[in-house]
Amino acid sequence: MRPAVLLLTEHRGELQPFIETFSPSPQGKGFRLSTGEGDVLFYCNRGRGGLEMTHLLYALSRDNPFQIVINAGFCGAIEPGLVPGRVFTVSGGVMADLHLEKVLQPLIEAPLHRAESRRLITLPSLQPGLFEKAYAWGSLVDLEGYYLLSWGKANGVPLLLYKMTSDDNREIPETSSMDPGPLAAALQEDLDNIMGLAADSLLLEAVLRLGLPLERSSEACKWADKSRKERLSFTRRHELYRSVKLDRDKKPGPPQQDEPHKFLFMETELQNKESFINAFPGHQPFSIDHYLDYFQTSENEGTSAIYIARKKGEMIRPKGAHYGRPGWRHYSAFNGYNCPMDCLYCFLQGYFKNASPVLFVNRGELLNEMRKKASQEAGPVLFHFGDFCDGAAYDAITGNIAWFSREIRNQETIFCEFRTKSVALGHLTGESAHEQLIMGFSLAPQKAVEQWERRTPSLERRLETAAKLADRGFRLSFHLDPLIIQSEDDWRDYEELAMTLRDRWSEKGLFSVSMGTLRMKRDTYRAIRDRGRGTVLRGLVHEGGFYRYPEEVRREADVRVGRILEEGFGGCYYVCMD
Predict the structure, then answer these.
(1) CB-based contact 362:310 (threshold 8 Å)
(2) Count of H-run helices and E-run strands, the chain
(3) What b-and-e string marks burial along 280-294, b requiring 16 or more CB atoms within 10 Å of the CB?
(4) 134 close to 78: Cβ distance less than 8 angstroms
(5) Distance CA 39, CA 68 (A)
(6) Residue 569 belongs to domain with CATH number
(7) Which of 139, 168, 199 is a domain's end point?
(8) Given 199, 232, 264, which residue is the final one in a domain?
(9) Spatial distance between the Cα atoms of 416 and 480, rounded to a whole number of angstroms
């Protein structure tokens, strides 16, 4: 059977320029175009809506198993500055109600798209108006796109959506006077690539698995040819794709001319919003009912956000039985999510859908939970601030460190550690320093900082900041976690850092020093790999439910780095998790 591609529009007027451009032959209620590599079928849904469009898809696919389904049509623009007449492919879509400010169905990524694409919001009905906040969810709005994405995901058929902006969504659009010709022109430009993919299942599979845009589909030819020549099984092909992803390192691009659109989302019930508006002057402030209405959807490309919210539900969480300094009970404290830094290995990439920072302001409730938990334990309890965010990156704004320092000073069994890579701590004074409050610094050799810890201060600046805090009386801890070992030079760099800490800090009464090698759960591993950051994962193997270095590498870390730290810090030294 010849490969087949379906192009489907909602309205007859949207289909007309394709008929005029490609001159297909009438066939039943649609049209057929035969090319050297397969057939293209053209149909419209006659304005019956997204749900009926999926029914039409099921009916058509019974007679024609399509390799690719294409949708083309008009859309509104939520993104500021998008003028009518521009054509984009869709990178993914959500279904949302703009009036209720609710995402009704979660994000589905579009399998096929151009490099320049936009996220789509499909609405339950026409909702004209100025919905600025919705730009955090997507850039374009329509009434049918999400239905097709959902159908494609359920049936394993790759979708490609072309959308042409017709209006800015402020009023009910009048599209009858618009020329949909650019939609047909876009397909005409891409048709050779599309039919090549439809005719070669291995090439299509490689493009989809490697996440390549249409313009770069030819890059997958060598992997398709390899699979064909070596007759690779399904399992071996996917091992091949994984290895290709691990060799890719998506470098940060040049600075964009246009700054991202920055939102400051604050829950309506919060007090003192003005202080946060003043603290983030470059962000457009909005009140929202609940931060999860926006945070549970990944941030739209071209936007960034900061959320000010109250933490609901779980506020502290016990850490693993073997975690941390022996003889203590260890708990994570939730004072925020995410941070402004960008470490390539960060486990939060596979933990939250959204990378935007969240600052929780109900610290009184958190303190009550800490007191309650401490009263249930026989010995000292250490609460770790910084497991789900950077513990101090925004402290100049929140003042959490000084506040918790005051509140726990007379609570003999409660200790707090704020772990950070930040050096923005000049506001802390000696009044906040006492033995129950620990400032923890995550450290790495400078080469590792430059390679793996983007947008973070240098090693030198972190150690300088630590020294200033020590001079003000603060108790400190240092954490060499994770060690990322990919060469003998890496081993020497970590050994030198361990010796520096031993020689300069062993007599300064540190609370703890730790070391751990790179490790992560499967979801984090996949998230990092699929974001084009696979080089940081080299050398990891799946073992005991984790991706980690083989046991011999972990033992070598104990011998070469751990031994030095143990020499300098004795019982204050521990191995992180491993």
Answers:
(1) yes
(2) 18, 28
(3) beebebbebebbbbb
(4) yes
(5) 11
(6) 3.80.30.30
(7) 199
(8) 199
(9) 19
Residue type, 144: E
Residues 550 and 439 in one domain: yes
Q: 454 has which bridge partners?
A: 342
Residue 537 lies in a domain: yes
Q: Could you give the CA distance from residue 495 to residue 489 in angstroms, rounded to a whole number?
A: 10
Q: Helix or strand or coil: residue 481? A: strand
Q: What is the pLDDT of residue 549?
A: 97
3-state secondary structure of 213: coil
Q: Is 572 helix (H, G, I), strand (E, B) or coil?
A: helix
3-state helix, strand and coil shares in percent for the chain, rounded to the nearest 5: 40, 25, 35
In this model, does residue 443 exceed pLDDT 60? yes
pLDDT of residue 321: 79
Structure-token pair, residue 503? 């020689």
CA–CA separation, 483 and 462 (whole Å): 17
- Segment 162-181, tens digit of pLDDT: 999 999 998 877 766 789 99
What pLDDT was estimated at residue 253?
52
Same domain, 487 and 339: yes
How many domains, in total, are found in the chain? 3
By residue count, the chain amounts to: 578
Tokens 């749900």 label which residue?
Answer: 51
Neighbour count for residue 23 (Cβ, 10 Å): 9
Q: Decide if 407 is inside a domain.
A: yes
Question: Is residue 77 within 8 Å of 90, Cβ to Cβ?
Answer: no
**pLDDT tens per residue across span 502-559:** 999 999 999 999 999 999 999 999 999 999 899 999 999 999 889 999 999 999 999 9
Shared-domain flag, residues 176 and 241: no
What whole-number distance in Å separates Cα of residue 48 and Cα of residue 187? 24
Which residue range(s) make up the domain with 216? 201-248
Cα separations in angstroms, 555 against 345, 443, 559: 21, 20, 6
Of the candidates 502, 457, 456, 495, which has an alpha carbon nearest to the alpha carbon of residue 478? Answer: 502
Same-domain check for residues 151 and 217: no
In a domain, 260, yes or no: no
The single-letter code of the amino acid at 347 is F
- CA pair distance 225, 399, nearest whole angstrom: 59
Together in a domain, 166 and 238: no
Which DSSP category does 112 fall into? B
Residue 284 has φ and ψ, to the nearest 5°, of -80, 115
Question: For tokens 């509104």, what's the residue?
Answer: 76
Q: Please give the C-alpha separations between residue 13 and each of 46, 62, 70, 409, in angstroms, as whole numbers.
A: 9, 26, 16, 72
Dmax over CA atoms of the chain, in Å, equals 86
- Do 455 and 353 fall within a single domain? yes
In a domain, 333, yes or no: yes
Q: Specify whether 16 is located in the same domain as 105.
A: yes
Cβ contact 271:108 at 8 Å: no
CA atoms of 380 and 328, how far apart (whole Å): 6
Asked if residue 206 and residue 190 are part of one domain, the reply reads no
Q: Is 174 exposed, middle or buried (0-12, 13-18, 19+ CB in 10 A)?
A: exposed
Q: What are phi and psi of 193, to 5 degrees?
A: -65, -45
The Cα–Cα gap between 50 and 56 comes to: 10
Q: Annotate 374-394 with b (16+ C-beta within 10 A) or e (fewer).
A: beeeeeebbbbbbbbbbbbbb
CATH code of the domain covering residue 102: 3.40.50.1580
